[in-house]
Known about the structure:
GMP Synthetase, Chain A, domain 3, 9 strands, 10 helices, 3-stranded mixed sheet, binds guanosine-5'-triphosphate, binds magnesium ion, Rossmann fold, 6-stranded mixed sheet, disordered C terminus, globular, alpha/beta
Amino acid sequence: MKSGFVSLIGRPNVGKSTLLNTIINQKIAITSNKPQTTRNIIQGIYNDPGYQIVFVDTPGIHKPFNKLGKVLNKEAQSLTKDVDLILFVVDAKDGLGGGDKKIMESLKSTDSPVILVLNKIDKMQDEEILAAINAYKDLFPFQEIVPISAITKNNVEELIQCIKKYLTDDIRYFDEDEITTSTLHFLVSEFVREKIFRMTEEEIPHSITCITSKFEEKANIVNITIDIIVDRDSIKKIVIGKQGSLLKAVGIEARKDIEQLIGKKVYLELYVKTIKNWRDKEKYLNELGFNEKDYIS
Ligand SMILES: Nc1nc2c(ncn2[C@@H]2O[C@H](COP(=O)(O)OP(=O)(O)OP(=O)(O)O)[C@@H](O)[C@H]2O)c(=O)[nH]1
Ligand SMILES: [Mg+2]
């Protein structure tokens, strides 16, 4: 039996959370085509008879624009320390840029081995994949370079086999049937946030947060209420949509994901509330699971 902790690090939108879901074989992290979808540290637990791998998904590392952004960056970077292995995930199709170079620079201070994961190869020809390997390989002493597609699952099994070589602990940290350390309250609020991310444009999704205010399990049904917090009334209007159309669509899609996860019928109620500048308010950062003092230097 071998186990260990593995961090997923990289720029926003490269596919870290998609890869986590593929490895765990269950949706536990939300994903979207907009950068900075992940806001919290998400742990996903992979189990097979001989191994337990605890994957730590992190918010994409980017230039911070506000207090929340700074907290997320610090948190992502702090998770390169004290792990058994780091997966540095890049969008191989996008190619090498200043953001990746900065991350490699900061990875030089860690003692943990680093695997370069070249994601999104489903969109690439073989020559392009080779060119991507060549662009990165001399910039950092990677233990391994593994091209994959998190969406088509191409080469993901090989990546898991490769990760196993770096695990040294010989205990099972979590029960075999546990797939995440996130609470159900958190997961269901995230599914709602994901639908808003996917159904709205531009800056809208970044200015909202979702909090589960009721979670009541009955024999045949689970009653759930989720508050969608926005920082301006104009955004509230957009999230509700014409005659409630957007909110209704969000509810229908989120309920499908929640029922899939819980395996029970769900009655879902959504409320939109305006709280000015919530992103800069410590109270709400704490509710999201952050403690500002720990991360802002
Ligand atoms: N074509 C292709 N698209 C992918 C692949 N993996 C992820 N994507 C897409 O890339 C976008 C970003 O994926 P996420 O998993 O949310 O990216 P992330 O790195 O977690 O992003 P942040 O949470 O913002 O840091 C989504 O639209 C995914 O569907 C892949 O292997 N191939
Ligand atoms: Mg993510």
